[in-house]
Design brief:
The chain is α/β, with parallel strands linked by helices. Helix content is about 15%, strand content about 20%.
Length: about 230
């Protein structure tokens, strides 16, 4: 079944309302953007726990990969203040081990862009394992984004390896039916589609999300991967 999602970012609430046309009457689905970055440090367990308590339909988050191939939750491939404070001015996540990433405090400083955000010193960057372990606390979905960059290959593994790592975790926690994969880098979406996993896939560009397809089977025809929908 294909789920069509219309996206509108609401920065003041740290949430993304989406329109679902899965069955019956369309309804707005609220996605906690980076958890709830207007209220708690972005992409952290406190932010995701806050969003769950508010009753969101999905947790939206971004993924990066450490030097030792651990998926961590971070919007940017580079650690830097005010989001995370550490032993250096900045560091590339993919050049650090998880232990080194955990030396950074991602809740120490309130982000000045969000005056209602509560600083929580001592907050460490979570892994994908950490956030998937929240699954039993509600019926929400996971809207996970691969932060992959064709022009900066040193920031991430290859699209195929990235997807392999993500899919292994989805299957480990048996969350196949609760996952939406999105990305600005369509290479990772195509790679996921070719696994035959069947998860909803969202392509994004500067104008918003593209059409969503639920791929089944391991093959695809030419043009059968997400393309930006120019009408949005």
């Amino acid at each position: 079944m294909v789920r069509i999602l219309h996206c509108l970012i609401v920065a003041s609430l740290g949430a993304i309302p989406l329109l679902s046309q899965a069955a019956g009457q369309p309804r707005i689905l609220v996605h906690g953007h980076r958890g709830a970055r207007a209220r708690r440090p972005e992409n952290t367990l406190p932010a995701f726990q806050y969003a769950i308590q508010q009753g969101v339909d999905a947790l939206e988050m971004d993924m990066a990969v450490t030097k030792d191939n651990v998926i961590v939750i971070s919007h940017d491939p580079i650690l830097h203040p005010p989001v995370c404070s550490g032993p250096k001015e900045s560091s590339i996540i993919h050049e650090l081990t998880l232990a080194e990433v955990r030396q950074w405090d991602c809740g120490k400083v309130q982000n000045p862009r969000f005056p209602t955000q509560m600083a929580i010193p001592g907050t460490r960057m979570p892994t994908l394992d950490d956030v998937f372990k929240l699954a039993p606390s509600g019926k929400f979905d996971y809207n996970i984004e691969t932060k992959s960059f064709a022009d900066k290959p040193e920031y991430t593994p290859s699209p195929e390896e990235f997807v392999k790592l993500v899919l292994a975790k989805i299957r480990q926690y048996k969350l196949d039916k609760r996952i939406i994969l999105q990305s600005f880098d369509f290479r990772t979406l195509v790679a996921m589609a070719e696994t035959g996993a069947g998860n909803p896939i969202v392509g994004a560009d500067g104008n918003g999300p593209a059409r969503v397809r639920r791929h089944r089977g391991g093959s695809r025809k030419s043009g059968d991967h997400p393309r930006p929908n120019s009408t949005w």
